[in-house]
């Protein structure tokens, strides 16, 4: 949407020393010059009109009157007056500088450049505050800030009440991010003329940048008080009210702007944002649509309307809006961010990742760009990369609550509960809501590293070797063949080795260690025969990991006591106990696995998977 307006209207004043050539209008023209120099444009215009009436041939009066019209945004009227002034005084460098500024405001850059060149030739040796000021304005327009600042400073040495000079110098400091110096300059201009609106406006913009919203509102309000038709000040004040959550006041200011400039698309766009914050989606949609109608080539309006479609669950319409926004502005990061979210919600991870990468390429400090890219890695169980992106999101915006919450989940998934708890506390400290939950007594953790599918795919390439084997489990002295069991072969990659090492360290009664879903997809499976035999063919030389889980029922027999008889045999009492044998099944499960290396293509590797040495289980 439309950013804060950072307006500056170039003002040129004319030296009172020149007014001596204008006969009987001298006193009035002198007064007009003083008013113009101190930023009183309306008074300057009135006095210039009087001077023009007194002397229709006063080039100075026409120049002042033209400048006052330019301040009122009547650039065509200003141009007419300036051309008359130059025709009367064709060797006045200040008049040409004045005309150049007006032409530049009309976006006639080539004509403005010619006027500036003429002015510079006539102002090679400035002799007054005005001439230094005029030349400084040209240097500033040409982005020669050092030269412009030197001329403004010289002008102020010659005329300490040159309020326009303070304002111009303040703008240069502001461009250089020297906010305190700029505030000082604007304060001096206001001290000379409290009715000079421009420094209030400019100072308000600095306060906005410093998040001093109340101070900014006070300055914009003063600018509006001095000029009720100042649409820029009204607009910026509306932005401040929006920042403070004073939505009704923001809407009132936007409504005033629209009465003055009813075809300003940016106002509709910003008002739409306020309506959206008030959960008035239909009104927001109408304003975004009007903004698009007035300015169909503005990408942000498309994205905003797309967000409304998203809210209404019209995903296809939202997707189309984001595509249009990207076509209009391929460097508009928000469009990629929102389109990436649609891909993410559909679990289309590759295009989502591409869009989030584009966001970060456009804006390397995009907290949400890193956050969303982290979610892609998180969903893919690439926890190290997810944690890295969440950390970058936090570095870009330390108040990004979701980045802390998501990083906590990623830490927990890799078994780092201490860091996970610290992040959840930070999330709560920032205002996030955490509810009490039931404890999960068994943890599932994953290796933090990133699985490389290309490496795994290459390792499973076709070769001439094979692995044949047999799987058995020994229990209570009995041998059980792993019949009809799924046997899995995985290529040994750095990720698998990391998983195996983590499993050896962390797996226990309450902890299971898993590989990512993607890593498990790069596997070859076989089903063992009735005697536990299996085979993998077409393998290439390399290292493999073979695993199966042998689950079976072991039949056992228990003697069940049913009672007894007793009798007296002389002095001896005898007892007979009665039993019967009962069969029952015991569920068994045994994980069998082995690393196997094939060194030469065409080799056949014979292996046994067993829970110990079982000679009868050899292949």
From TrEMBL:
Cross-referenced InterPro entries: TPR-like_helical_dom_sf (IPR011990), TPR_rpt (IPR019734), Ycf3 (IPR050498)
Key words of the record: Repeat, Signal, TPR repeat
TPR repeats: from-to residues: 59-92, 129-162, 163-196, 197-230, 231-264, 265-298, 299-332, 333-366, 367-400
The UniProt record lists the keyword tRNA processing: no
Cell wall biogenesis/degradation found in the keyword field: no
Signal peptide limits: 1-23
PANTHER family: TETRATRICOPEPTIDE REPEAT PROTEIN 6 (PTHR44858), UDP-N-ACETYLGLUCOSAMINE--PEPTIDE N-ACETYLGLUCOSAMINYLTRANSFERASE SPINDLY-RELATED (PTHR44858:SF1)
Name the record gives this protein: Tetratricopeptide repeat protein
Native source species: Chitinophaga eiseniae
């Amino acid at each position: 949407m439309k950013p804060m307006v950072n307006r500056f209207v170039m003002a040129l004043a004319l030296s009172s020393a020149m007014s001596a050539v204008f006969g009987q209008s001298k006193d009035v023209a002198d007064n007009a010059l003083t008013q113009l120099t101190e930023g009183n444009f309306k008074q300057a215009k009135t006095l210039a009109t009087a001077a023009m009436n007194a002397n229709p041939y006063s080039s100075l009066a026409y120049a002042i009157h033209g400048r006052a019209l330019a301040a009122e945004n009547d650039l065509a009227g200003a141009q007419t007056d300036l051309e008359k002034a130059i025709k009367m005084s064709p060797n006045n460098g200040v008049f040409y500088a004045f005309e150049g500024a007006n032409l530049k405001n009309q976006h006639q850059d080539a004509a403005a450049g010619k006027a500036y060149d003429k002015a510079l030739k006539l102002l090679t040796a400035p002799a007054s505050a005005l001439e230094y000021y005029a030349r400084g304005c040209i240097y500033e327009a040409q982005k020669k800030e050092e030269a412009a600042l030197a001329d403004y400073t010289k002008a102020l040495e010659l005329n300490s009440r040159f309020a326009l000079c303070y304002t111009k110098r303040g703008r240069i400091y502001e461009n250089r991010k020297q906010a305190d110096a700029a505030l000082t300059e604007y304060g001096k201009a206001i001290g000379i003329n409290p009715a000079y609106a421009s420094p209030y406006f400019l100072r308000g913009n600095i306060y906005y940048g410093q998040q001093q919203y109340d101070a900014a509102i006070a300055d914009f309000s003063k600018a509006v008080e001095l000029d009720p038709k100042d649409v820029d000040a009204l607009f910026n004040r509306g932005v401040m009210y929006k920042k403070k959550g004073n939505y009704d006041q923001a809407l009132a200011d936007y409504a005033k702007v629209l009465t003055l400039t009813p075809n300003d698309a940016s106002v509709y766009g910003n008002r739409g944002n306020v309506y959206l914050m008030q959960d008035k989606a239909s009104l927001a949609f109408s304003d975004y649509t009007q903004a698009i109608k007035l300015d169909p080539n503005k990408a942000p309006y498309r994205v905003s309307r797309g967000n409304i479609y998203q809210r209404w669950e019209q995903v296809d319409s939202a997707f189309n809006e984001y595509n249009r926004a990207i076509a209009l502005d391929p460097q508009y990061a928000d469009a990629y961010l929102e389109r990436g979210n649609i891909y993410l919600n559909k679990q289309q991870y590759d295009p989502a990742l591409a869009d989030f990468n584009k966001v970060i390429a456009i804006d390397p400090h995009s907290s949400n760009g890193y956050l969303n890219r982290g979610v892609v890695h998180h969903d893919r169980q690439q926890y190290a990369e997810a944690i890295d992106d969440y950390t970058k999101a936090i570095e870009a915006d330390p108040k990004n609550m979701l980045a802390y919450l998501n990083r906590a989940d990623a830490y927990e998934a890799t078994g780092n509960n201490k860091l996970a708890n610290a992040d959840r506390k930070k999330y709560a400290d920032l205002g996030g809501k955490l509810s009490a939950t039931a404890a999960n007594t068994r943890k599932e953790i994953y290796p933090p590293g990133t699985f490389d599918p290309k490496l795994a795919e290459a390792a499973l390439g076709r070769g001439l070797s094979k692995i044949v084997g047999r799987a058995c489990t020994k229990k209570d002295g009995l041998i059980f063949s792993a019949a009809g069991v799924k046997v899995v072969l995985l290529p040994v990659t750095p990720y698998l080795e990391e998983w195996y090492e983590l499993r050896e360290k962390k797996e226990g009664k309450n902890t299971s260690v898993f590989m990512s879903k993607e890593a498990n997809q790069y596997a070859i499976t076989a089903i063992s025969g009735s005697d536990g035999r299996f085979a993998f063919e077409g393998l290439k030389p390399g290292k493999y990991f073979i695993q199966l889980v042998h689950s079976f029922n072991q039949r056992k027999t228990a003697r069940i006591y049913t009672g007894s008889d007793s009798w007296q045999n002389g002095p001896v009492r005898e007892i007979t106990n009665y039993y019967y044998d009962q069969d029952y099944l015991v569920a068994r499960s045994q994980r069998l696995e082995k690393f196997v290396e094939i060194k030469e293509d065409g080799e056949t590797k014979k292996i046994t998977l067993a829970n110990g040495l079982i000679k009868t289980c050899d292949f």
